[in-house]
Design a protein that fits this description.
- By secondary structure, this protein is an alpha/beta fold.
- The chain has two domains: 75 residues; 228 residues, Spore Coat Polysaccharide Biosynthesis Protein SpsA, Chain A (Alpha-Beta Complex), CATH 3.90.550.10.
- It contains 13 helices and eight strands.
- The protein has an eight-stranded mixed beta sheet with strand order 3-2-1-4-7-6-8-5, with helices on both faces.
- β2, α3 and β3 form a beta-alpha-beta unit.
- α1 packs across α11 and α9 packs antiparallel against α10.
- 46% of the residues are buried.
Amino acid sequence: MSSLLAPGIWLLLGAEGAASAYLTGLAGLALWRKPRPPAAEAGKPWRLAVIVPAHDEEALLPRLLASLAGQEYPADLYAVHVIADNCGDATAVLARAAGVAVHERDEPESPGKGQAIAWLLPRLPAAASDAYVFVDADSIVEPGFLAALARELDAGHLALQASYRVADPDRAPLVTLRALAFALMHELRGRGKARLGLSCGIWGNGFVLRREALERVAWQSFSGVEDAEQHLLLVLAGLRVAFAPEARVYGDMPASFRAAGSQQRRWEAGRLALLRRYGLRLAVAAGRRRDGAAAAALLELALPPLSLLLSAEAVLAALAWTLGSAEARLVALAAPAGLLFYVAVGFRLSGLRPRSYLALLHAPGYVLWKIALYAREALRRAEPAWVRTNREG
């Protein structure tokens, strides 16, 4: 290897190897299933307030409300609150017809899901609920959703994140690929971080905050990725978000690149903005407090998308094979192997059917789309604004 190229290639190989080792380690931990504890006696009767922010969601909201009405949880222990947020359609009318509490917010100068949540929380009687469950209006929850969350609350957790999956994953190749991406980001990493006692994260749909958590860290996240921001504030305050794998919520995903573009741009730009805003604070917390959760949260922000990681490793493998030593070639091959194991475990945890694997034929186009999108947002450095996702197509 050229003496001029060697340090740079080894530095890049080290960074790629560390990222691959982190993801591979989480994949291995996600496969390890702890023995289920013996059934305990009935726990505390948790009073739950289910909060549904909804902006022009007349098409999909009734589906969610029907699934919430069919919960295997005592009806007198939970109440559904729909925020009809700056709506111009029949969202509020349909919610009232379903018999749930409706809160109409008319503040067009202050749009956003985080703003809607912050608007509602002080308007709810604090003593009426032990915990708040946040669910997106375009979702559907399983019948045992609230009961599974209550069992996790019995364990003493102050914050929870349910298993967030994609509804109807075989509807289109893009939806299938995003279902796999969700399984990797949520199910796999959530389980892996839970095994290590870290904070699994908040993914915007199906998360729970106990009243005590909101008393310690008030809702103050108003960016385009309000969920991820609130998670960082919880971690910096020393709180952890536990993973609730048996509580499952399914979200609707766009079926075309055009429809999915605004959503994905908001996620990627938001993560980069949070890295710039909170990166130093997380690093200080990780160092001074020896806080593994803060270190993991920082690493999650800094990790590029899997599509970018795989592409970078392919380029590095080619360079190492052409210009590198035998050791460099070994490292260059080990990192992609670890990521392939990570993807394989994600497929296993996703619940996708074997025929869904055919969607991988569309993966090159998906990868190129993600790389272009990520590069554009990294160069633009703009703060993301919340925009309703167009689900047509």
